[in-house]
Amino acid sequence: MLDRHDWRGDLDSARVQHLAIEAVKLGLADAYEHIADLGHMRHAPEAFLASDYLDSRAKLLDPARAGDPSHGEPGPGGTVYLSAADRDGRMVSFIQSNFMGFGSGVVVPGTGVSLQNRGAGFSLRPDHVNRVGPRKKPFQTIIPCFATDLAGAPEMSFGVMGGPMQAQGHLQMALRVLGHGQNPQAAADAPRWRVTSGRGVVVENTFDPELADQLRSMGHEIRVETPDAVFGFGGAQLIRRTASGYVAGSDPRKDGQALAF
After folding, report:
1. What is the pTM of this model?
2. Is 72 strand, coil or helix?
């Protein structure tokens, strides 16, 4: 398993960004193969968090070169995001999405609420764990995120809207705020990357060109997106609890605001 010291140092160094990209690729490979309705998964979620399994996956990560990982196999065993916190330390992480367009096109009578069409996330592959079927929920990307301290107390309520960008954005926000102590607004403002497929990584046009070149030298196939593709990197909202109160951030890429009252 990688030593925790491998992740220290300059947050925007090629080494730290490379490790984060490679970790996301490993995680997504497992997610696309294994995550489905809880009652139909071949392995319990806890199996993917077992130390021996995490160790085996981490060993596939080359600290110096980009990889193209496949999924592992554990042993037996149109989105709106809202974050809120009160003066008593209670925090809420909430997300809602109709998915594509106006969702399913079915509106609840008398409410104006359109139902989602997340069923599009099912697989049609007969042998896939996420194959479409009755009484099943599809694998999807509605992920309200929450962090607690070692004692279980609320520490940060946050989320990143944007389809397949969500889990990747969460890692980047957690790495910046929880791992490196960055201000939530600074973390939301910072340039982001998005893993596509294989060794492909797309970065925002504000991404440091020198850092992008360093990642290329490590084998990543870096592509810079145009300024009008900003929505492809999601939209973050964060509230961090501190000893003196809360610090909040709202992503400039989407509509949103950090408010206190």
Report:
1. 0.69
2. coil
Closest CA to 84 of 28, 26, 144: 144
Mutual angle of helices 14-34 and 209-217, in 10-degree steps: 60
Our answer to whether residue 79 is catalytic in this structure is yes
Q: Is 93 in contact with 156 (CB distance < 8 Å)?
A: no
Torsion of CA 24, 28, 31, 34, to 10 degrees: -120
Q: Which alpha helices (DSSP H) does the chain contain, by range? A: 14-34, 51-58, 165-174, 184-189, 209-217
Tokens of 31: 């997610």
Residue 38 CA to residue 116 CA, distance in Å, equals: 19
Amino acid (one-letter) located at 173: M
Residue 245 tokens read as 């109160």
The one catalytic residue among 79, 206, 226, 242 = 79
Domain ranges of the chain: 97-140
Q: What type of residue is 188?
A: A
The string of pLDDT tens digits covering residues 45-104 is 888 888 888 888 888 888 888 888 877 766 544 688 999 999 999 999 998 888 877 788
C-alpha distances (whole Å) from 155 to each of 12, 17, 134, 137, 177 are 24, 24, 38, 30, 11
Tokens 């998915």 appear where? 99
Residue 239: strand pairing partners: 157, 248
